[in-house]
């Protein structure tokens, strides 16, 4: 069970501010993100509507 330190409570903002100023971004690992669910374009939607219209006739 993880319990936060007393200094990291919301009511005690000064230590959190100190931790943020001392944070070293250089220790973070570089990540590459890739879009998995690409939204359809206007043309894609029009094409799908056209296909649906032909299939129901």
Strand content: under 5%
Number of strands: 0
Average pLDDT confidence is 79
H-E order: HH
The description of the largest β-sheet is: none
GO molecular function, one term: actin monomer binding
Organism: Gouania willdenowi
Function: Plays an important role in the organization of the cytoskeleton. Binds to and sequesters actin monomers (G actin) and therefore inhibits actin polymerization.
Pfam families: Thymosin
Outline the secondary-structure elements.
Layout: H1 13-22, H2 42-55
In summary, what is this structure?
The chain is an all-alpha fold and 57 residues long.
Describe this structure in words.
- The structure is a single chain.
- The longest helix is centred in the last third of the chain and has 14 residues, at 42-55.
- This protein has helices at 13-22, 42-55.
- The model has no long low-confidence stretch (mean pLDDT 79).
- Helices cover 42% and strands 0% of the residues.
- The protein is elongated, with a radius of gyration of 25 Å.
- With 57 residues, the chain is mainly α.
- It has 2 helices and no strands.
Descriptors:
cytoskeleton, mainly alpha, 57 residues, single chain, 2 helices
